[in-house]
Amino acid sequence: MMTEEQRRRLIENGKANAARAASDGKTEDFKPVVKLFCPWGGATWLLTELDPEEPDIAFGLCDLGLGFPELGNVSLEELASVTGPGGLRIERDRHFVPRQSLQAYADEASQRGRIIA
């Protein structure tokens, strides 16, 4: 679902935020590294980091297409196991280029009821 370079950047971001959270309780608002989407529905995920202790768990903006996007964690294993009509799978948007921080996407998504990316 993602390239090795994207996985490396997600882990680096996760390590950086784990260290910051341990030292001062604050985290950095990264730009998303990868955008995943459901080709047969409205679900979208903008991911910024992987948990360094449990690299199957990603953090980002999650939108299941129900009008309530939210920041949270998602299991990459669960996303990889989803199969849709005709064997379709969750895909990576190969053309995605982040234009703002994750919080900016979250604020915009909250106003519009969906991720615009």
Largest sheet: 5 strands, antiparallel
User: Segments where pLDDT lies below 50 for 5+ residues?
Assistant: none
The portion of residues forming beta strands comes to: 15-25%
**What is the overall pLDDT average?**
96
Largest sheet: spatial strand order = 4-3-2-1-5
Order of helices and strands: HEEEEHEH
Q: Can you walk through the features of this model?
A:
The structure is a single chain. The chain is of the alpha+beta class. It has one domain (4-112). It is built from three helices and five strands. It has helices spanning 4-24, 76-81, 102-112, and strands spanning 34-37, 44-50, 57-63, 70-75, 91-92. A five-stranded antiparallel beta sheet has the order 4-3-2-1-5. Strand 1 (34-37) and strand 2 form a beta hairpin. The two termini are 18 Å apart.
